[in-house]
Amino acid sequence: MSLPGAIGSGLHAAFLLARGRSEGMHYLQADTDSVHFSFWALAVASPTIVCWRLITWVEKSVPADASHVLALDMVSYVVGWLGFLVLSFYVVGRFGAASRWPRFVVAWNWCNVVESLLCLAGFVPGLLHAPPAIDEASQIIATGWALWIEWYSTRLALDTGAFAAAVLVVLDQAIGWLLAGWNLALLGH
After folding, report:
1. pLDDT at 57 (0 to 100)
2. Considering the entire predicted model, what is its pTM?
């Protein structure tokens, strides 16, 4: 499969999974090329990190060290993404699903693109000066849906139970919170 074909299949699968359609898994392969190509999802999703930071600056103000802040965000983004996948290899092995880990990697990578877009969309009402209740509800719904997508695709990719999928989602979120705290400490906020 070519890179454009892998990106198209991966995104198609992720959008199906985001709608609760398990047939999305049929568009994901677990061969070596598909696993390698799925890491392009990191690049495809990266503009959402930049947009999220820009939204934060629109709501507050642009710091004097804006390029430093953005670079730190991008480094944390890559470290978190890759760090979770490394840790997940060991956790998935504990659940007896090591042979399905490559399929999980492909699903997780592509679903992250959709999750990032969804979370970004959750901030749109606030940018449009919607009432606080609508703004907050939008962010909660978007975040909840993104977490559900990760949990649902993990269950399907690993063919595992709800608890095992939840453990992986919590691990992913914990890494994100840890890195966010690290960033705040480095920036002195």
Report:
1. 87
2. 0.92
